[in-house]
Amino acid sequence: MKRQIQPSAIERMMRESDFIVSKTNPKGIITYGNPIFIEFSGYSEEELLGSQHNIVRHPDMPRAAFQLAWDTIQSGKEFFGYVKNMAKDGSFYWVFTHITPDFDAQRNIVGYTSVRRCPKRDAVSKVEPVYRLMLQAEQGAGARDAIAAGTKVLLDLLNQTGMSYEELVFSL
Predict the structure, then answer these.
(1) Contact of 154 with 68, CB cutoff 8 Å
(2) Which residues contact 98 (CB under 8 A, 6 or more apart)?
(3) Which of 15, 127, 140, 172 allows an S-S link to 82, with CB 3.0 to 4.6 Å?
(4) Is 60:11 a contact under the CB 8 Å cutoff?
(5) pLDDT tens digits, 68-95
(6) pTM as predicted
(7) Are 20 and 37 in contact (CB under 8 A)?
């Protein structure tokens, strides 16, 4: 269900001891959310379960960032990254996320588990301008070429630093 929520400038800060946990099926439909996820998202458990995980996607996040996450976890690898999420009331909260694929006995992906924790503030201040540049490139390219344009911005940055995406994330 698509919801029209107006983003606000109100930031909710995670506590150091918080861990937001959610699980999805292979298509990204939420099958579990812990009480901290429910608290920060502002949605009830009933609203979350059965919804696409992008229910908490903030419009400031570039599509290319999520494509990178999906490509990584669908290949069976774990993903780490900084993400700006949006709550039901339009407020936002930054997280440091770790997403892992869940496998059955035959090593088929049967879902994903995401554990988010309080991000380092200096890391957020470094990643936010990168996401802004990626988003600007996506908007300038139009819907059809948006992800490629945002990805190019990120790849150019990685080439300049000589780091992989994961190395960049852990260096922040």
Answers:
(1) yes
(2) 78, 79, 80, 114, 115, 116
(3) 127
(4) no
(5) 999 999 999 999 999 999 999 999 999 9
(6) 0.94
(7) yes
Instruction: Quote the pLDDT of residue 3.
Output: 61
Cβ-contact 153, 139 below 8 angstroms: no
Give the DSSP H or E segment for 134: helix 121-141
- For 4-54, the pLDDT digits (tens) are 899 999 999 999 999 999 999 999 999 999 999 999 999 999 999 999 999
Q: Residue 60 contacts by C-beta under 8 Å, 6 or more apart in sequence?
A: 7, 84, 92, 131, 132, 135
Buried/exposed 78-105: b ≥16 CB within 10 Å, e otherwise: ebebbbbbbbbeebbbbbbbebebeeee
Q: Specify whether the CB–CB gap between 90 and 11 falls below 8 A.
A: no
Please enumerate in sequence order all residues whose Cβ is within 8 A of that of 5, keeping only pairs 6 or more positions apart, or say none.
86, 88, 89, 90
Can you name the residues that pair with 79 across neighbouring β-strands? 99
Cβ neighbours of residue 9 closer than 8 Å, sequence gap 6 or more: none
Q: Are 113 and 99 in contact (CB under 8 A)?
A: yes
**pLDDT band for position 149 (50/70/90)?**
very high
